[in-house]
Amino acid sequence: MSSTGDGLVLDLPPGVPREVEVPDESLVAALDRAAATWPDRVALDFLGATTTYRELADAAARGAQVLLDLGVQPGDRVALAIPNCPAHVVAFYAALRVGAVVVEHNPTYTADELAHQLADSGAVVALVWQKTVPAVRATLDRTAVRAVVAVDLSADLPWRSRFALRLPVAKARRTRAAMCGPVPPGVPSWHRLVASARPVRDDVPGPGADDVALLQYTGGTTGTPKAAVLSHRNLVANALQGHAWTGAVPGTEVVFGVLPFFHAFGLTLCLTYAVRVGATLVAFPSFDPALVLAAQRRRPGTFLPAVPPMLDRLAAAAEKSGTDLTSFRHAISGAMALPPATAQRWEAVTGGLVVEGYGMTETSPVALGNPLTAERRPGTLGLPFPSTEIRVVDQEDPTRDVDAATGGELLIRGPQVFQGYWQRPEETAAQLLPGGWLRTGDVVRVDAGSVVLVDRMKEMIVTGGFKVYPSQVEDHLRTMPGILDVAVVGVPGGDMGESVVAAVVLDADASGVDLTAVREWCERRLARYALPRRLVVLTELPRSQVGKVLRRVVRDQVLAGEPA
């Protein structure tokens, strides 16, 4: 490890270039190139229904014409609120092809949650799942949306499955109710519009590399979501960096899309990286281990982006069913810490590697990763991606670098760093420092040449003048017998500033887990000021769509005195 004066220089894995040359092109170029290079290769597999790259490019071109017919102009925002399915991929590339800006939304959001994001982005067209149509239509008096188009999830199924949904049996009715919803008169069907449209003309201008491609909403721990502005160049850069890191052989990979495409992690690894390397994307409408194992038997995967709970559940299901997962050479875990036990279990079942990656929506999203080699260091964030610089700075004064081994706030600079927050110049200025450095709000240290996460600054607890990092307390409490899961938060503590509270989920047969026992367990490893002063037992911890524990929500529950 050394410092250049601008940033730290860490040794990258063998074969990974320190720099990558980001081409001056849009995301659409990768799809056009894949369709020309591998026209008959399966681009998408959705529960057995396949789409080749030629067919995907054609559908996206037809979808682009649909959007033009709906009046979409370059720079207009097009909202997507669709589960993982081929229609989502088609809509994503169709909007980009006409120079529109994609705005991704969780299709299970309520009308109020959608109203804020739709109004904030100024989206003019919304392509949404049938079951989400009522929620979006309920926002029309508060947003600029002038056209709502319904997406029928079942239309992407194999014909046998579509036929089975019409059978007058209970199982078919349950499946149909889960996938489909009633659509009010006057709301057009995306599939019908695309099927009847002609492909967009070649002379219709497409986007440039520096045009905005995506508004991706991120709330983090701060509450109200705000949109990160990501350009085509940002997203192309991150897909290219991911390719350099993984060493994927173009035209050979099979990526399992278990992460939601509307989340930054799933969007980049499944919608942009997969297309750039000519991978087959096996898409799932939701995470279901049984569906994933069935797909594995049909079309063995090679690469799995996931979060730790997914890896653990898949490994357990494979062990129970005897399903062979040894085709998976690589898995990348993100969004939360990867427990060593989960990593060991996955690698034992697959014989492949699982490594942690680190990033934020603001970095498109991946910025650091562990080597995909035997030299990986479980429990660390790893090393900066190619063309990515990092600094470790004083938490109160980000202009001052500190000893990286001691720790401080992580700053990141690279071609994947976002353009700022949509229509929020003050928040942009607070996050993006002069010189293009992004403040992450994460406290890290560098240990033996690898970056280690300490905790998030915004979630740090200050008690009696001492700083307590919740993850350090959580990591220790997870080793305590009887505790299944834990979140540590700070609540107002009078003269102490804040008081440390441990919210725990207990094992079914747990006994003797009380505040006294918890404090005694913590005293083995933690300073006295870090010991929990209160214990709250919950039946489950609130999590985001990708499984990350929402400490902010836990804190609200504790303050509200919510019962277990």
From TrEMBL:
<dbReference type="InterPro" id="IPR025110">
    <property type="entry name" value="AMP-bd_C"/>
</dbReference>
<comment type="similarity">
    <text>Belongs to the ATP-dependent AMP-binding enzyme family.</text>
</comment>
<dbReference type="InterPro" id="IPR000873">
    <property type="entry name" value="AMP-dep_synth/lig_dom"/>
</dbReference>
<keyword id="KW-0436">Ligase</keyword>
<dbReference type="InterPro" id="IPR020845">
    <property type="entry name" value="AMP-binding_CS"/>
</dbReference>
<feature type="domain" description="AMP-dependent synthetase/ligase">
    <location>
        <begin position="31"/>
        <end position="422"/>
    </location>
</feature>
<dbReference type="InterPro" id="IPR045851">
    <property type="entry name" value="AMP-bd_C_sf"/>
</dbReference>
<protein>
    <submittedName>
        <fullName>Long-chain-fatty-acid--CoA ligase</fullName>
    </submittedName>
</protein>
<dbReference type="InterPro" id="IPR042099">
    <property type="entry name" value="ANL_N_sf"/>
</dbReference>
<feature type="domain" description="AMP-binding enzyme C-terminal">
    <location>
        <begin position="473"/>
        <end position="548"/>
    </location>
</feature>
<dbReference type="Pfam" id="PF13193">
    <property type="entry name" value="AMP-binding_C"/>
</dbReference>
<dbReference type="GO" id="GO:0006631">
    <property type="term" value="P:fatty acid metabolic process"/>
</dbReference>
<dbReference type="Pfam" id="PF00501">
    <property type="entry name" value="AMP-binding"/>
</dbReference>
<dbReference type="GO" id="GO:0031956">
    <property type="term" value="F:medium-chain fatty acid-CoA ligase activity"/>
</dbReference>
